[in-house]
Each structure stands twice: as C-alpha cells, then as structure tokens.
Amino acid sequence: MTILDLAGANQGTISFVTGYGHGLYSDDLLLQMDEAFGGNDFFDNQSSPRKVADFMERALTFPDENFDGILVWDTLQYLSGPLLDAVIQRLWRMMRPGGCMLALFSANEQAQMVQSHSYRIVDHKTIGMLPRGMRKPSQVFSNRVLERLFQNFHSVKFFLTRDSLREVIVRR
C-alpha cells in the first residue's frame, strides 16, 4: 500500500509503516497552511482567491488515485468554507477507490481554542501526540457537518476518544 502522512515526516511513523512493507509519503499540511494563510487573520486570509489559488497550487500536488490511505490527523478543522471543500475534493481524488482516510476533530463543541498536535505512530497500539500550540477551529464539526463534508465518500465512521477527539474514518 501507499500511505500519505500529513503530519510531517518523523522516524517513528516512517519505521512503523515501512516495517509492514508499505510506501510512505510525508507532508506537513498545517505548516503549509500557516505559510499560506498566516499573518493578521488566518481565516480571513483563507477567503482570498489569490492565497487559496497559491495554496492549492503548492499543497497536495500528488497524482490522482495515488494513495491507499491518508493520515490527515487534526488539520482539516483549521480550514474554512470553500477552501475546506476544495481540500476534501483533492484528497478524494488522490485516494484510490476503496482507500481510507483518518481525520481528527475536536469533540468539544464549546471550545474557542483547541490544542493542535503533531502525530507519531509509536506502535500498533499507540499514537504519540506532540502539542503544536492552541488554535481556533474554523467551526464546530458535529457528526452531521462531517457527514456533509465527506458526502462524496463511500462510507464515514465516527469514534469518540477519551481525549475529546472525534476520529473520522472515511472510505472512498
């Protein structure tokens, strides 16, 4: 299988995935978002057609149907509006039919700020979460919102973790 990890390259995840004989590509989508939309107003900058076009031209530039799995982690909750939809469409195109994607969203619907993390696969039972700082989510991602967001996918499964995270597994 070929896997894309959007938390950035780290040796633990590389060793885990390649140890099973799979290929791994890594990219730090959150860092790319900060570079493209950082500054005065992160979410307002996401509505700039020029900044969105530049971001989409540089980010997620992999071929269609290239991945069997994509580890998105908590990155999508920091994208808003049409940009979020465009990124979801691009991820769908990059996945092979039957491929799966893992995304995490804060389950705390009252939180104004949530802790973002960099994720590392430690072993088959453990995922390490390294804090990257507090961030404001773009919106509340309820189950209904997530079902609409991933409506073009074949299936959507939700799980609630002890860490107040909503794990979402979608299959193309």
Describe this entry's structure for a reader.
The chain is an alpha/beta fold. It has a single domain (2-171), classed as Rossmann fold (3-Layer(aba) Sandwich), CATH 3.40.50. Helices cover 31% and strands 35% of the residues. It has helices at residues 11-19, 29-37, 42-45, 49-58, 81-94, 143-149, and strands spanning 2-5, 23-26, 67-73, 95-106, 114-123, 126-135, 155-160, 165-171. The chain has a six-stranded mixed beta sheet with strand order 2-1-3-4-8-7, sandwiched between helices. The longest helix is centred in the middle third of the chain and has 14 residues, at 81-94. The two termini are 15 Å apart. The relative contact order is 0.16.
Q: What is the element layout, followed by pairings?
A:
Layout: E1 2-5, H1 11-19, E2 23-26, H2 29-37, H3 42-45, H4 49-58, E3 67-73, H5 81-94, E4 95-106, E5 114-123, E6 126-135, H6 143-149, E7 155-160, E8 165-171
